[in-house]
Amino acid sequence: MAKRTFSNLETFLIFLLVMMTAITVALLSLLFITSGTIENHKGSHYFPTTQSPPATQGSTTTQSSTTTQSSTTTQSSTATQTSPETSTPEPPLFQNFSGYHIGVGRADCTGQVADINLMGYSKSGQNAQGILTRLYSRAFIMAEPDGSNRTVFVSIDIGMVSQRLRLEVLNRLQSKYGSLYRRDNVILSGTHTHSGPAGYFQYTVFVIASEGFSNQTFQHMVTGILKSIDIAHTNMKPGKIFINKGNVDGVQINRSPYSYLQNPQSERARYSSNTDKEMVVLKMVDLNGDDLGLISWFAIHPVSMNNSNHLVNSDNVGYASYLLEQEKNKGYLPGQGPFVAAFASSNLGDVSPNILGPHCVNTGESCDNPNSTCPIGGPSMCIAKGPGQDMFDSTQIIGRTMYQRAKELYASASQEVTGPLASAHQWVNMTDVIVWLNSTHAAKTCKPALGYSFAAGTIDGVGSLNFTQGKTEGDPFWDTIRDQILGKPSEEMKECHKPKPILLHTGELSKPHPWHPDIVDVQIITLGSLAITAIPGELTTMSGRRLREAVQAEFASHGMQNMTVVISGLCNVYTHYIATYEEYQAQRYEAASTIYGPHTLSAYIQLFRNLAKAIATDTVADLSRGPEPPFFKQLILPLIPNIVDRAPIGRTFGDVLQPAKPEYRVGEVAEVIFVGANPKNSVQNETHQTFLTVERYEATSTSWQIVCNDASWETRFYWHKGLLGLSNATVEWHIPDTAQPGIYRIKYFGHNRKQDILKPPVILSFEGTSSAFEVVTT
User: Fold this and answer.
1) Marked catalytic residue, from 314, 321, 346, 352
2) How many whole angstroms separate alpha carbon 575 and alpha carbon 427?
3) Strand ranges (DSSP E) for 227-319?
4) Where is the composition biased (Low complexity) (predicted)?
5) Binding site residues for Zn(2+), as ranges?
6) Which residues have CB under 8 Å from 750's CB, separation 6+?
7) Is 352 a catalytic residue?
8) Which CATH superfamily is domain 655-776 in?
């Protein structure tokens, strides 16, 4: 192509961008801190209930204060070292039965719900401003009758599991349980909600996307994951596991159908759809047949909540968990009760829940084309929509369909899972894997890099700079800016990644820390005839099919016939996407985000077959451990500072600014506005375990009974940030048709940050109460 020359305006823009970037890098360097630790959050989920007659005026109460503390640690290349602890003694296990010891546990891992980016869309300005639902870690422990072998599967309501998160969890498990729970028999999997907090990563690309590292959120996530495992460990009892499978219709589309069509026609002809519709369900019961828990694997992106959302929530899969847990845990508030239901991620890479498909938002015409672009406005106008009237409605429609199908499969599950438990794990340098294409020819993986179409985003969430999907050539303008700021990618890297035009050569960038991981986890755990493959990224539909078939064939070739292989996505460390070699050639978003090059999938298939062989031949002990990943401690401070909260003159925190109306009908929205404080203070001081309650007055007991909290889908908590520490909090209750007539009130629980001159800051708890109001049915 002809050499492009730049106008004076373009030259000036390039100079301006270079100068701004240089200043930003300098400021970020000054912001380097040694990330401290905060006190682990302990205690059960207590929701306060007051004993008093109906309130007629708003009121506030100050309850407690905590002085905030910080500490420093040193940089290390391995996981943090905690103080030695005595290993938790293993309780005696009843052994004379057929089945498994089963333990289930659930714990809050929400983290910050304000002043932090939401993780998933990488959209600047999409920061948390409240909460729609709590986020939970759901743990399942399975052990053989004699307790000799056990496995742990944890599904977590977060965007993905970061390597830092996994290393810290494993280190603390070792401190508490010794060698009982290890890197090989513990899988951590993210549900991939795009509405959870960011800030828990260590590699620079993700730290930039998070706008810094949030130690508060990181510690809260670690504590929640550990607590869910502790609960499961404590609650282990003899039981049985059953498996069932069935299709779920009407909730998915393939968001990159033109990439899918690049796969061989003979391969595509074997499948009736360009998405995997099959749901796999594990049913767990005790020996009396009483329900314990459910794990479901199904391929769907939790992006029903779009990138205009600012409320922390678990999206469509979380709503499915919510419905099933509420049904099984009658009489309990959300997040409580013994039954645990996890809707885990699978090969969701190219699967969208926005089933109405992509349309140009300015004209309404379809933009289902190879570049996902519109005639007027380009790719930024091409957005897919869900089936509902808005994103909240779409989330519930998709989630309810998954819940109903899982419920059916759970009820009819009759095939028992039996047989020994096993696990295999390796750390692998994914930048240098030799891939044997056949008996005579080999290729290799590449150092990580992101292509141009990565910046385009998807029809579920478009990029902000009008990049286009399907780009197989670079652009001199952006290449020049990249070269001036970050340097040029090497010729070796460009050659390795072809036909991907490299936008960011992350594998050759190491300041302040490596931009992407080199060392990656590969892992399989087996329960009898079930194999769970822990995938460190997002497999596309066809990638998942190929990997499942290859692993199943490997097991069969060594005598383990008829294995069911499930893909568990977003596990252990995040490495973006894994497209097939053929899809890679089209260079849409998923292919441009396949960071280890065109042979990434082939490398993973090779590695997982090796693990399957080791399990089938009982040679797991002979597997090499692999190079241990680093654990960086010196990370960038969040760009949003902590400031002192202030109430308006003549007001106190928790005062009612806008009262509830005296009466509401079912289907209406009760709304109360309070004098607020920054919700992120509540991560440091958990005096309250919810930001809100909806309470109903019981005349017979003359007490207020909680009917909803901030984990309930009919409540919404909005935080409105003002200037100089001023803020308001809005609590909404979308009154359901099932609400009983009666007298209600809304309470708000918060924490404000206070700091006197020459004294450390303290966090003070407070609460506010609305006036009483009546709910009527007609």
Assistant:
1) 352
2) 14
3) 237-247, 253-254, 278-286, 291-297
4) 48-88
5) 192, 301, 538, 577
6) 653, 654, 674, 676, 677, 679, 681, 682, 688, 691, 729, 765, 766, 767, 768
7) yes
8) Neutral/alkaline non-lysosomal ceramidase, C-terminal domain (2.60.40.2300)
